[in-house]
Structure formats: structure tokens, C-alpha cells
Amino acid sequence: MTYGYIRVSTDKQTVENQRYEISEFCSKCGIEIDAWIEETISGTVEASRRKLGRLLKNVGKGDLIICSELSRLGRSLFMIMSILNILMEKGAKIWTIKDGYKLGDDIQSKVLAFAFGLSAEIERNLISQRTKEALERRKSEGLKLGRPRGSLGKKSKLDGAELAVSVMLGAGTSLNQMSKLYGIHRNTIKLFIAKKNLDSAENLSKVRQMFGGTIPPK
Q1: Which of 118, 148, 153, 200 meets the CB 3.0–4.6 Å disulfide criterion with 164?
Q2: Cβ(103)–Cβ(94) under 8 Å?
Q3: Phi, psi angles (nearest 5°) of residue 200
Q4: Which of 44-48, 70-74, 146-150 is predicted with the least confidence, judged by mean pLDDT?
């Protein structure tokens, strides 16, 4: 079965743009959609409380879900990762048009899933760490809790993401894909890679060795 999944956040948004995008993509690839799943709901709502949750229960090995981009699945990296894990455990595939991901039960997908998992863990830990640091700092200064509007954290969102970014580089993930994944500008990713020398032959060779040489050469 091939499913077209569409999600919009509010009634003011239309599902037609996503439907057209998916239909055009399938037409070019010679794919026919067997069933459409459309819903108007925030991506912050758990998948189990959405139509997506019922879809995840019903999919089986070899089934394919096509959506416009990964952000249609959820608004946090950790939520998206949990959904991808469910699909991979069932042997189902998911393709995203704008991101250009084709994830399934193969080595390439598992490598990318590993990178996503690392990134999700980093995101969750950084949020927790920043929250604790902000609270402790404000308490020590005798200030009211709550970050002023427009203020910036001292830590980079990519701190500790060296391995995850290296894995994605080795797997051929583009800067645009990584910038969407982390929610930051592609130039920030580019500068981080250059500063840490992550795209060097030596670093990528070490990462490939971790996976028994299964990551495709750059």
C-alpha cells in the first residue's frame, strides 16, 4: 500500500498544496496513491492522538508513506525520530519530497536514523541543560524567571553534534537537509563543519569504520 499523508496546522491552511505536490511527485515516479490521510491538527500533538497514529498501526512491511516534508510528521526532532523508528521496525518506508529523504529498511536508512537519533538526543539534552542553567542563573541573580524576548543562549545548537553531522555527511545528507533538521541556517552548518573539520577525509574514514564501511563515500 502507498499512502499520501497530509497535515496542516489550522483551518486557514489548505491541504490542496500538499496534495498537488505529492500527486505531481507520484506522477513523475510512476507511483499510485492507494489511500490519502489528511488532518488539520498541530504537529505538537502526539502521533497517537492523530490520524497518523492509526496509520502507523496499520502499515506493514513494504508499505510506503509519502509526505511533503519531515516536519509534517511532527514539530520536534524527537517526535519525528520516534515515528521513523516505528516505521523501520515494521519494515515500512517513508519518502519526503522537499527534504529528499527515502527512508526504509536498508543500511543507508539505518545510518541516517542513527544520525537522527543522536540529533534528537542532543536536542533534548540541550533543551534540558539550557533550562536548568537559565533557572539557576536567574535565581542567583534574584531575577524573575522566564527568558526575555529575543535573548539568545550562549551555547550553539550544534554543540556535541559532531558525530551526528559527520554521519550525515558520510551518508550524503545535504546542507539544506541538515539545516531543516536542526532548524538553523545552512551557513551555520557549513561554518560548523569547517570549524570542526568534519568533512576531512580522515574524519569521514573514521566514521565509516564505525559502521563497517557501510556509509557511502562522499
Answers
A1: 118
A2: yes
A3: -70, 150
A4: 146-150
Overall average pLDDT of the 83-111 stretch: 84
Indicate the residue type of 167.
Answer: V
**Cα-only R_g, the chain:** 19
96 burial (CB, 10 Å; 0-12 / 13-18 / 19+) is buried
Q: Are 56 and 99 in contact (CB under 8 A)?
A: no
Return the bridge partners of 8, or none.
40
What secondary structure letter does DSSP report for 100? -
Q: Residue 201 pairs with which residues in a beta bridge?
A: none
Angle made by CA atoms 192, 194, 199, in degrees to the nearest 5: 105
Other Cβ atoms closer than 10 A to 52: 24
Residue type, 1: M
Instruction: Please report, to the nearest 10 degrees, the dihedral formed by the alpha carbons of residues 33, 35, 40, 45 taken in order.
Output: -100
Res. 176 pLDDT band, cuts 50 70 90: confident
Is residue 49 within 8 Å of residue 79, measured between CB atoms? no
The 3-state secondary structure of 29-72 reads HCCCCCEEEEEECCCCCCHHHCHHHHHHHHCCCCCEEEECCHHH
